[in-house]
């Protein structure tokens, strides 16, 4: 039997490693910028072309590399940060596994120019698809200059699955923001297709946060600062009144590294319990400093999932720290004693005589005594009924069937929908011409097989979604001008997404003007959404588009239409007039798929006659 197991060539092994480390252009930006920070760079410039698909260039003024180091840096497991296994448990740098440059070189064309401060000339190395092409002496500034071109040029299948430029650029900006937030002492700049996106000078942490997300955030942040033997927690949390359903900026960092941690997120949200509506989120920027020996940062290829040794204890410390900040800055309601309205309580003097209080009353008062003082006015009660005649007819209780015979068919898919007349004196049920609205939530109507129940909010979502999709497709949306334009401020990573969906927003009636610096003026909104917050509406659509990450135009349009429909649909608890109920039902059954909302929620449910009859046996 012949042997079947063999060692993979280095080029293939590097491509496999690249699949774990280099998932998209943003991964390259993250690895190269973190390496520059580890090299103690003071200024870092990132330049991307076509969202990094064509070229990513990272220039820094760090230590640079010697000729030998430059050549070795592209070998797998080559690293300057580990000498023995114990070093893995004392890491305070970003990259350490020695796979990043080898993985990048395996799937792109890489050119490196680098020079340490101690040398007069530098080294230029060119590698493509793990194949070494050239090495030469070159004149260059101190530091390193990486140029990564034609990502996945040798793996067409991987390149084909890259997203649209707007999506990939948004991911690059998100990675850049995370690095910027944890390195305020480093000057960082980013350019996309030669246009400046970020220019962040070295500053304090608070100023760096405001530079990335806007100065409006300054009034919302509360300081968190607690230091224990186990962990130090610092940073900022937002005031409770700033909570929203989605789109909040939520960042955890540990020892200078960004991380995701649902367990610690719950600790933060628990501190806001009963301070914000259920389901709302809050902005926070929280920085942990712990002994590296107590965490494991190598459990995930991207190193964003980190395991802590004492998670439960840290959970309690974190929750207490956030609660302390909320209380310290009066974010938690407290009893306020206004001394101006307090009664004047005299001080007790022991020598002064104490007198019991005296009660004054009229001992002669008798409420039943007929006297001049206490007599009630004389009233001739019979005169009050003058002119009224007693009814000589007796009203029998209504015993008619509450559900009359059917007269009209509406839908073949759900069974025939019939108009019916209802007589109901229950105050909890509102009467309509043909239907009943109950509890401000459901619409009841008789059908051939039993009783049909329609969810009014979901029905309206279904109707509005179809309407907005038609408007987007035909570019026929009507806009309503606002009296005073609303201003929306977005971080750079969200600006890219907004610009990508701008045409579709215009199609449903939005008109936005780019004011620069991440600010947009909302001049017009779709007809029918008056009364809603236009800024929050646009922000929700941007965040939904970011969460979905879709690049197919039709899917993006569906996301926008559904978000807008949910925001504009009638809410639960809203009492409808008979005409409104009838119009809602008629419009629902004019839809192609009235039974379900676009995201799959049930709109219509039918209780069969047999099931109703069983309730009364």
TrEMBL record:
One of its GO terms (molecular function) is mismatched DNA binding. It comes from the Bacteria. GO terms for cellular component: mismatch repair complex. The gene is mutL. InterPro entries: DNA_mismatch_repair_CS (IPR014762), DNA_mismatch_repair_MutL (IPR020667), DNA_mismatch_S5_2-like (IPR013507), HATPase_C_sf (IPR036890), MutL/Mlh/PMS (IPR002099), MutL/Mlh/Pms-like (IPR038973), MutL_C (IPR014790), MutL_C_dimsub (IPR042120). Residues 434-576 form the MutL C-terminal dimerisation domain. This is DNA mismatch repair protein MutL. One of its GO terms (biological process) is mismatch repair. The keyword DNA repair applies. Coiled coil: none annotated. This protein is involved in the repair of mismatches in DNA. It is required for dam-dependent methyl-directed DNA mismatch repair. May act as a 'molecular matchmaker', a protein that promotes the formation of a stable complex between two or more DNA-binding proteins in an ATP-dependent manner without itself being part of a final effector complex. Residues 209-327 form the DNA mismatch repair protein S5 domain. Belongs to the DNA mismatch repair MutL/HexB family. Keywords: DNA damage, DNA repair.
